[in-house]
UniProtKB/TrEMBL annotation:
GO terms for biological process: cell wall organization; cobalamin biosynthetic process; peptidoglycan biosynthetic process; regulation of cell shape. This is Lipid II isoglutaminyl synthase (glutamine-hydrolyzing) subunit GatD. The keyword Ligase applies. Its EC number is 6.3.5.13, 3.5.1.2. It comes from Floccifex porci. The keyword Hydrolase applies. Forms a heterodimer with MurT.
């Protein structure tokens, strides 16, 4: 089996080690004899995104988001085709914001989003940002998991119809949302950097499973061979202890 990934705007959207997500996917695939092919797509590069099993878009500062938006909007039809053909999409922070209606940057500039979803992102109060470690409880197609990460965003994402999870510690979609991210079976958007996948092997495997399903419709989550997760567990336990919550 093979997993083909396209990391969009890899050169400008890579905040807080979002690249680590790609490294983890690669390792967890290779450890299971699943071939892993990582491609990138920068501004102006010709690519058919529907050829991939997974599209990944990381986080970025307002400046980077503004610079890539004309290119991203020009790919709207192709991204829609990819989603229709079951390419899975993983979006972190700035990338997550751009799949909604719009994002109002800290300088009040309104950036039009891809508008695939109803959610939109307003700017927070002048100079205020949601920053810190975050823990959420999520339900991924029936798989219940506690997810840990780090958030740093000014944007306040509202009108989220299908949140990824309930906030246990930290902020999430907005200062008082109580909910974090977006998941509707086709895209998983989240404010969690950290990066997300190294500390959350269940999410990493879930992303692999959803992506493999494009070419292998009968593939099941349980088909992924268990791996040694001693380090991952240690990293998670440290955080849980610090916040006095259970894993
Ligand atoms: N620039 C966006 C914000 O501040 C996204 C930041 C990020 O990707 N961490 O809300």
């Amino acid at each position: 089996m093979k997993l083909k990934v396209c990391w969009m705007y890899h050169d400008i959207m890579d905040l807080y080690g979002d690249k680590g997500n790609m490294m983890v996917l690669k390792k967890r695939c290779l450890d299971r004899d699943i071939q892993f092919e990582l491609d990138t797509c920068g501004i102006g590069q010709k690519k058919d995104l529907s050829e991939y099993d997974l599209i990944f878009l990381g986080g970025g500062a307002d400046k980077e988001q503004i610079s890539l938006i004309p290119d991203l909007l020009s790919r709207k039809e192709n991204i829609q085709k990819a989603m229709d053909e079951n390419t899975f999409i993983l979006l972190i922070c700035g990338g997550y914001q751009l799949f909604g209606q719009y994002y109002i940057a800290a300088n009040n500039q309104k950036i039009k989003g891809l508008q695939f979803y109803d959610y939109y992102t307003d700017t927070g109060k002048q100079g205020s940002r949601c920053i810190g470690n975050i823990v959420i409880d999520a339900n991924l197609d029936g798989i219940k998991t506690r997810i840990v990460g780090f958030e740093n965003h000014g944007g306040q994402t509202l009108n989220v119809k299908h949140p990824l999870g309930k906030v246990i510690h930290g902020y999430g979609n907005s200062f008082d949302a109580g909910q974090e991210g977006f998941y509707d079976g086709k895209i998983l958007g989240t404010y969690l950097h950290g990066p997300l996948l190294p500390k959350n092997p269940v999410v990493a495997d879930f992303v692999i499973y959803k992506s493999l399903k494009k070419r292998n419709p009968d593939f099941k989550f349980e088909d992924l061979k268990p791996l040694n997760e001693t380090f991952e567990k240690g990293a998670r336990d440290t955080l849980f202890k610090r916040f006095n919550i259970g894993g």
